[in-house]
């Protein structure tokens, strides 16, 4: 076959494509365990931050510190924790795609991991995974509630694709600090927390239920408000939180 022929050129191109595909596939398969481990560490790190357990000089002790976190699975439809047998069955169902329903806040799982920090049998923080649409992306975060299951201890997002300097300000420590101490529910258990336009001042009615909006990022701020209200409501963690309050109060 002549080297300057069309057939030879196509053959060489095809061989290059096959070799490159094999290299990329091999690299992806080889690196998958590393990527999964890094993703697990990143999630654990963010859970520890939400629990208030991770200090700057302890980044190398994530696995050790995470032993303080009690990882449980909750059935959001009944509000109950799952037993070991139910947890295994739920995990198998999750892998097959069962148990998910469409909801305003994104894909709502019927069974959800939740994270508890306890001291001497007393609940210190309850950390709830949340997710929902911003302007450009699905935002994945963690909402931490105090032992009264009403006071917000933190809200943070560990994965999103919002615009840096605008919607990306959900990562700004100053904005995240505004959530600390806010009340998610009123005395009757109704979800009241919301993100408003503008700033919350001492004169703002019901200021303890309100958080400043994000300047120039109205849709992202609205998305954050919507997802928090959704996941704390009846279609999200509502039944689970009601049951937890009864157990904590008993």
Name its key features.
250 residues; alpha+beta; 6-stranded antiparallel beta sheet
Give a verbal description of the structure.
This protein is α+β, with helices and mostly antiparallel strands. It is 38% helix and 23% strand. It has six helices and ten strands.
- What is the makeup of the main sheet? 6 strands, antiparallel
Cα-based radius of gyration, to the nearest Å: 23 Å
Structural class: alpha+beta
Average pLDDT confidence is 85
Spatial order of the strands forming the largest sheet: 2-1-5-6-7-8
Quick one: how many beta strands? 10
β-strand percent reads 15-25%
Please report the distance between the alpha carbons of the first and last residues.
86 Å
Which bin fits the share of residues in helices?
A: 25-40%
Determine the number of helices (DSSP H or I, runs of at least 4 residues). 6
- What is the general shape? elongated
Stretches where pLDDT falls below 50 for ≥5 residues?
Answer: 94-107
Quick overview:
The chain is an alpha+beta fold.
Outline the secondary-structure elements:
Blueprint: H1 6-51, H2 62-66, E1 69-75, E2 80-81, H3 84-95, E3 100-103, E4 106-109, E5 111-119, E6 122-133, E7 138-145, E8 152-159, H4 173-177, E9 194-195, E10 210-211, H5 218-232, H6 238-249
């Amino acid at each position: 076959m002549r080297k300057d022929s069309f057939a030879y050129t196509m053959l060489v191109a095809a061989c290059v494509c096959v070799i490159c595909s094999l290299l990329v596939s091999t690299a992806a398969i080889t690196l998958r365990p590393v990527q999964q481990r890094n993703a697990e560490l990143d999630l654990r790190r963010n859970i520890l931050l939400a629990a208030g357990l991770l200090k700057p000089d302890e980044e190398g002790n994530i696995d050790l510190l995470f032993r303080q976190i009690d990882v449980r699975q909750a059935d959001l439809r009944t509000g109950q924790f799952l037993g070991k047998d139910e947890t295994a069955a739920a995990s198998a169902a999750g892998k097959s795609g069962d148990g998910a329903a469409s909801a305003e806040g994104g894909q709502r799982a019927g069974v959800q991991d939740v994270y508890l920090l306890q001291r001497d049998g007393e609940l210190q923080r309850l950390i709830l995974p949340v997710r929902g649409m911003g302007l450009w992306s699905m935002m994945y975060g963690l909402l931490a509630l105090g032992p009264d299951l009403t006071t917000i201890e933190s809200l943070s997002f560990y994965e999103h694709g919002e615009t840096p300097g605008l919607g990306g300000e959900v990562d700004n420590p100053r904005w995240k600090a505004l959530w600390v101490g806010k009340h998610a529910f009123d005395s009757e258990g109704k979800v009241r927390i919301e993100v408003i336009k503008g700033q919350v001042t001492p004169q703002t009615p019901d200021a303890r239920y309100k958080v400043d909006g994000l300047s120039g990022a109205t849709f992202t701020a609205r998305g954050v408000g919507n997802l928090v209200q959704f996941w704390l409501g009846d279609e999200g963690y509502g039944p689970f939180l009601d049951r937890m309050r009864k157990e904590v109060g008993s």
